[in-house]
């Protein structure tokens, strides 16, 4: 029976960089999830007779939320739901499924790498027909609707079963429970040279380790790497998804994937290491004794794209988020293809990909992807690297070094200061904003400021404008410092400081990053007064 439930707005339902993310207990408030879902259904266009994909990263509250969404979808016009078995779909797999079945859109339940469990975080976002995150016009409409909501529609009925693959009906609505891995695995085999990768993985010498960090990528990595590509059993570690990610923090970086890093940096260790995040869209790439920064990884993938079957004909263009290093720009220039700079967040790549203006995209935050779907894609990046290694028959370290020798190196680091009081963070950004008009021309620690601004993006496709996307300071020598506040945190504010220096001298390509960037790090601190305002002596996380 369809029921209209009276409700009142919650004032904190504005989606951030990637959907609405809050503590689980916030979502557990009466009507909280329902309000947001109703606001979402009311904002995404005509839902009558449409097909909706639903799945999440398996964290605590995933299945509970899915049952609610299913019961609301049934009385909000949808004709068919496609749901991953047990409610699971990695973010890239959800994007793949939306596109493959030409669905109207999808609801992805995830807070990515944020810790999970009853005391952890939960998240929800809407992806549109192209498989990508809803653009700002829609996320803003969802927020506006959430602020005026007075009721929502829900079917009163028993929970559906998420355990068996197959078709069931809820009133007139068809529900298909699908294998969450199969469609995605098939897409990967269409893109990459699986026989070449299989030959590499089975040559008796090459060793790899993939850390799924107890999150969603485990089943995907096992199926693709171990089953289809013949990697030794045990290649995938921490491969069983758990509702609390085993108490961990599945963010694939040097801090949180320490176990993997240690193995790759031991005297005798695997040739290749990789990790993915909670929802499977991020990747970290390691070789024996080397960490590949995500910005370098993007540049290297682009430079080697023609070795991959799906990109053999070359790239239309490359896009990177503004704070991502300019390493990929050098490749675009050499290939004589356009380079696009977008604000942080994958939603800004969608239009460029749909218009076929770019083929490969990336962010410094361990995100890389291409036109095969409309989300960043962790395993795709891993397979891309494996395909390059299989063809070039060189080590990761040789490939990276040769890349720097050819294109120069962009030394790059990001310093995060987490859980700063919001007022302090705002004060810090405001202080920087006020300095903007006076910075150009000044000499700071020997670097002359070329420009200082607050980045705004003019989308070349739909002409929309996104303002206030981060303060950037560019120097005449190509160095950059960027400051922005995170839009995915759930506790206080997170300040991100991005620092980049350009090196073309072949004698200076192999220095330690933090040492090399020391003078710029000092400039960043003195401009933003980080230490004095936050009272912190060091960043929480350095990547
Ligand atoms: C962060 C990253 C951004 C990424 C976003 C979602 O956003 O910086 O590059 O797109 O997370 O990634 P923010 O606003 O906290 O800097 V994920 O893997 O959480 O879906
Ligand atoms: Co993620």
Automatic annotation (TrEMBL):
The keyword Phosphoprotein applies. It catalyses: alpha-D-glucose 1-phosphate = alpha-D-glucose 6-phosphate. Transmembrane segments: none annotated. GO terms for cellular component: cytosol. Keywords: Carbohydrate metabolism, Glucose metabolism, Isomerase, Magnesium, Metal-binding, Phosphoprotein. InterPro entries: A-D-PHexomutase_a/b/a-I, A-D-PHexomutase_a/b/a-I/II/III, A-D-PHexomutase_a/b/a-II, A-D-PHexomutase_a/b/a-III, A-D-PHexomutase_C_sf, A-D-PHexomutase_CS, Alpha-D-phosphohexomutase_SF, PGM. Its EC number is 5.4.2.2. One of its GO terms (biological process) is glucose metabolic process. It is an enzyme of class 5 (isomerase). Its cofactor is Mg(2+). One of its GO terms (molecular function) is phosphoglucomutase activity. Residues 13-152, 184-286, 295-407 form the Alpha-D-phosphohexomutase alpha/beta/alpha domain. NCBIfam families: PRK07564.1-1 (NF005737). Belongs to the phosphohexose mutase family. This is phosphoglucomutase (alpha-D-glucose-1,6-bisphosphate-dependent). It comes from Methylophaga nitratireducenticrescens. The lineage of its organism: Bacteria, Pseudomonadati, Pseudomonadota, Gammaproteobacteria, Thiotrichales.
């Amino acid at each position: 029976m369809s029921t209209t439930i009276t409700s009142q707005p919650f004032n904190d339902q504005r989606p951030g960089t990637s959907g609405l993310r809050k503590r689980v207990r916030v979502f557990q408030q009466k009507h909280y999830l329902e309000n947001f879902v109703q606001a979402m259904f009311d904002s995404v266009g005509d839902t009558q007779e449409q097909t909706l994909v639903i799945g999440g990263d398996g964290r605590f509250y995933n299945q509970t939320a899915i049952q609610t969404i299913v019961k609301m979808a049934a009385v909000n016009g949808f004709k068919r739901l496609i749901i991953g078995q047990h409610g699971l779909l990695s973010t890239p797999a959800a994007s793949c499924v939306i596109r493959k079945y030409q669905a109207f859109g999808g609801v992805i339940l995830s807070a990515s790498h944020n810790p999970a469990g009853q005391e952890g975080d939960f998240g929800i976002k809407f992806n549109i027909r192209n498989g990508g995150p809803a653009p700002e016009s829609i996320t803003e409409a969802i927020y506006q609707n959430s602020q005026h909501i007075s009721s929502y529609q829900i079917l009163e009925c028993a929970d559906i079963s998420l355990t068996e693959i197959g078709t069931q009906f809820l009133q007139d609505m068809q529900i298909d429970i699908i294998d969450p891995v199969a469609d995605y695995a098939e897409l990967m085999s269409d893109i990459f040279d699986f026989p070449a990768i299989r030959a590499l993985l089975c040559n008796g010498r090459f060793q790899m380790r993939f850390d799924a960090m107890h999150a969603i990528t485990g089943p995907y990595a096992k199926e693709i790497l171990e089953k289809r590509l013949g990697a030794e059993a045990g290649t995938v570690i921490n491969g069983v998804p758990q509702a609390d990610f085993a108490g961990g923090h599945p963010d694939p970086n040097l801090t949180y994937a320490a176990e993997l890093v240690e193995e790759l940096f031991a005297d005798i260790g695997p040739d290749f290491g990789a990790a993915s995040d909670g929802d499977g869209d991020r990747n970290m790439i390691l070789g024996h004794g080397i960490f590949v920064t995500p910005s370098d990884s993007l540049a290297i993938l682009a430079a080697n794209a023609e070795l991959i079957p799906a990109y053999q004909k070359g790239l239309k263009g490359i896009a990177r988020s503004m704070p991502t290093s300019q390493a990929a720009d050098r490749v675009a220039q050499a290939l004589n293809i356009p380079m696009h700079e977008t604000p942080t967040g994958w939603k800004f790549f969608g239009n460029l990909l749909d218009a076929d203006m770019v083929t490969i995209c990336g962010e410094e935050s361990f995100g890389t992807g291409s036109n095969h779907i409309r989300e960043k894609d962790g395993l795709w990046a891993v397979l891309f690297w494996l395909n390059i290694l299989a063809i070039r028959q060189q080590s990761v370290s040789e490939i990276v070094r040769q890349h720097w020798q050819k294109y120069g190196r962009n030394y790059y680091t990001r310093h995060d200061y987490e859980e700063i009081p919001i007022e302090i963070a705002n004060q810090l950004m405001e202080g920087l904003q006020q300095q903007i008009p006076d910075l150009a021309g000044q000499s700071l620690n020997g670097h002359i400021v070329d420009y200082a601004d607050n980045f705004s993006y003019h989308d070349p496709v739909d002409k929309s404008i996104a303002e206030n996307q981060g303060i950037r300071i560019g120097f005449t020598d190509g160095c950059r410092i960027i400051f922005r506040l995170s839009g995915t945190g759930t506790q206080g504010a997170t300040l991100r400081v991005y620092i980049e220096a350009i090196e073309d001298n072949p004698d200076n390509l192999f220095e330690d990053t933090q040492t090399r960037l020391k003078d710029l790090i000092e400039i960043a601190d003195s401009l933003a007064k980080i230490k004095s305002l936050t009272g912190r002596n060091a960043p929480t996380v350095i990547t």
